[in-house]
Amino acid sequence: MKHKYIFAASLAGILAGIATAFFFSIKTPALPPAFSPAVNPFRNAIYAEGIIESAQTSGENTSLYPEVAGTVKEVLVSEGQQVKAGDPLLRLDDSVQRATTEQLASQAKAAKALLDELKAQPRQETLDVAGAQVTAAEASLNMAQETYQKDLAAYQMDPRSVSRDALDTAANAAKVASANLDVARKQYTLIKAGAWIYDIQNQDRQVSALEQSHLASSALLAKYTLRAPRDGVVLSINTIVGNYVSPQGAYDAYTQGVGPVITLGSPPTQLNVRCYVDEILVPRLPLGPRMQAQMAIRGSNVKLPLQFVRVQPFVSPKIELANQRRERVDVRVLPVIFAIAKPADINLFPGELVDVYISE
């Protein structure tokens, strides 16, 4: 009985081993790739890594930096929005600069008012007062002279009727009245002549200086609003309300670097591909309009022909992927720009990496 159990267990083990061997011997066919890898479409070609960018007549996408530093008060556009040249994109806090500009405007207006006052002289009311003072001085002189003449006549008739001291006092009073009349007349002539030409010229220069200061302050105030330098589309906004930005750009917490506050490109229907050709392959590059190239979009089987646009004739370190100057690189590349005939049913965006083959 015991041998039967052992035989049954052995048979079961054998059957299980056969089943396991059969199961693991079954070969599952490999799944087809989601897309075909990029292949060389030419007999001889140079491979280069490319990056899609908006079409530009020179340079790359337009990177916008404020000319002044400050805290972002308002972001007026959104990513993907098309803008016209001169449209406001972003405003910085300009409270201090605005107050300074308004103060200079008030000072310029006050200086201009004083200049107008100098040019408007003499004021009729002031001239009337000076004329009245002349009339009063003439009356005083007449009275002093008459008094002196009376005392003198009395003294000549009888020296005892008027003391010598009183006669001298009357004579001095007449002289003082005559001097006062002379002063009043000269004061009237001075007022009637108006402001001195040198005072007017000095005040005119003061007005000009303050107006120029106001214009300079107004120009600086305008720089607190970042505007689009040309027609285009907003590709990226690298700041938010409350962030501090400067002419060096905006701080990026992810890369811990500083980049443009706003990146502006051309409409998405106009795209270029910037290829970076290794300096070792540059001698094999067929420069000129006869250059042929094809682009493969990663993650798809789409292949698009490229049209040569220009070469940026400056070999530089390949730092474009991280876009940070502190990136250590051992490769120098030559940028070559191609235009894309973008089909309407394919999604392409600036900043996308592609594979490019350039025919030798």
CATH superfamily of the largest domain: Efflux pump adaptor protein, beta barrel domain
Low-confidence blocks of residues: none
Average pLDDT confidence is: 86
CATH architecture assignment of the largest domain: Beta Barrel
Largest sheet: 6 strands, antiparallel, barrel
Report the portion of residues in β strands: 25-35%
Secondary structure: helix percent: 25-40%
N-to-C span: 85 Å
How would you describe this structure to a colleague?
- The protein has 360 residues and is of the alpha+beta class.
- The chain has three domains: 36-55 and 266-360, Elongation Factor Tu (Ef-tu), domain 3, CATH 2.40.30; 62-92 and 224-265, OB fold (Dihydrolipoamide Acetyltransferase, E2P) (Beta Barrel), CATH 2.40.50; 122-194, Orthogonal Bundle (Helix Hairpins), CATH 1.10.287.
- Helix content is 39%, strand content 25%.
- The protein has helices spanning 2-25, 95-120, 124-157, 164-193, 197-222, and strands at 45-54, 62-64, 70-75, 82-83, 88-92, 225-227, 232-237, 244-246, 249-252, 257-259, 262-265, 271-278, 292-297, 303-311, 316-317, 332-340, 353-359.
- The protein has a six-stranded antiparallel β-barrel with strand order 1-12-16-14-13-17. A six-stranded antiparallel sheet has the order 6-5-3-8-9-10, with no helix packed on it. It has a four-stranded antiparallel sheet with strand order 2-11-7-4, with no helix packed on it.
- A hairpin with a 5-residue loop joins strand 13 (292-297) and strand 14.
- Helix 2 runs antiparallel to helix 5 and helix 3 (124-157) packs antiparallel against helix 4 (164-193).
- The model has no long low-confidence stretch (mean pLDDT 86).
